[in-house]
Design brief:
Layout (H helix, E strand, L loop, with lengths): L5 E10 L9 H6 L5 H11 L7 E9 L4 E7 L2 H9 L14 E3 L1 H11 L8 H14 L2 E3 L3
Parallel strand pairs: 4-5
Antiparallel strand pairs: 1-2, 2-3
């Protein structure tokens, strides 16, 4: 059996459970012939457990207008924002600090993200999370 021919691969970041045919999702999918409502229903079903977070996904669109959704996880910055109740990061992270993150909070986030990171060592994963936090303008509390 021959493999399906891929028309395009799209990378999207959408709030979990809230995909709608409205812009920007609808037009982006429509230009590639994706059945928009089918995508929205499948995406929303797949992401119910991540409500309140942005979720990254990779969408493979085939020539016959079928598609495949692969979830890529929640961005680290979104996990950090949710953990400390932050709306957005600092515009000048080196000068303006917008919050603090403890080592325990960093460990919790790293444990959630470790499958998506390029390491399986929790200490290395924590350093990756710390780097994201610092680039958002957060201070890391020393224990």
């Amino acid at each position: 059996m021959a493999k399906k021919q891929i028309k395009t691969i799209m990378k999207l970041q959408i709030e979990a459970g809230k995909a709608t045919p409205a812009p920007p999702i609808g037009p982006a999918l429509g230009q590639h012939g994706v059945p928009i409502q089918d995508f929205c229903n499948r995406f929303n079903d797949m992401t119910k457990k991540h409500m309140g977070y942005q979720v990254r996904c990779e969408l493979k669109v085939y020539k016959d207008r079928t598609f495949e959704i692969e979830l890529k996880g929640i961005p680290t910055a979104n996990l950090i924002q949710k953990e400390i109740g932050l709306k957005k990061g600092s515009a000048e992270p080196n000068q303006i600090k917008v919050g603090k993150l403890t080592k325990k909070q960093i460990r919790d986030i790293a444990e959630k993200k470790i499958d998506d990171l390029n390491t399986k060592n929790i200490e290395s994963a924590m350093k990756i999370v710390e780097g994201t936090a610092k680039s958002m303008g957060l201070e890391i509390e020393k224990e």
